[in-house]
Amino acid sequence: MTDNKIENSEQKTAASDFTDGIIAGVPIGLGYFAVAFSLGIVAKHANLTAIQGFIASFMCLASAGEKALFDSIASSASYVEVAIITLVVNARYLLMSCSLSQKFTEGTSFFHRFIVGFGISDELFGIAVAREKYRPAFSYGAFLVAVPMWSFGTFFGVLAGNHLPARIVSALSVALYGMFLAIVVPPTRKNTAIRLIVLSSFLSSFLFSILPLLKTISAGTRTIILTIAISAIAAIVKPLKEPEEKK
Fold first, then answer.
1. Are 42 and 63 in contact (CB under 8 A)?
2. pTM of the predicted model, to two decimals?
3. What would the 3-class secondary structure string for 146-200 be?
4. What is the residue-wise DSSP string for 64-77?
């Protein structure tokens, strides 16, 4: 009887997390649609069909990685070159997946870990890692909204081609930046250490974009370098206290 109560409680919790994920995924999905729409225009220039653009977006949930992919296809790059470029640009998601894996409860199956890792993006990682009690069901709810919107954005972008003015496409993508700020700002108001880390990240990213040698590094590689360096310094200066073991 007790086991049934525990199982029912876990199911209700998973359903609640799934619903929360859907709600959190709506603004992300809207922003993704706008950004993916512009990527669809790039895919059109690479002579991809709408179906091919849809599949590419579904399999590669990353704007920078997908842009590099379409540019490589347009320049007739080899399969090996495309694979290497895409891997380098998207390498930061390996770091995000490793970070999020620490929030999984003990005993979480490989299947859940694999699916969550597959759907990780900057924004989806942000809303997941900000949860105090994270469960895969939350990410599944967000994926259900964000992934189709991203894929269909590219699909319709390819169909639209160059018919829409560039200013309109650029204006549509502003919502994504606003949403990302909404994810970052609340934790910084509660924690001074996080506030300093965010400010140092902004400053470091700005310096990397203007300094003579550093600005030649690709955006994806800069993100990886800054993520490792800043997180390592933060871990040394302000380490998290290990929770006391329950007796």
1. no
2. 0.69
3. HHHHHHHHHHHHHHHCCCCCHHHHHHHCHHHHHHHHHHHHHHHHHCHHHHHHHHH
4. HHHHHHHHHHHTT-
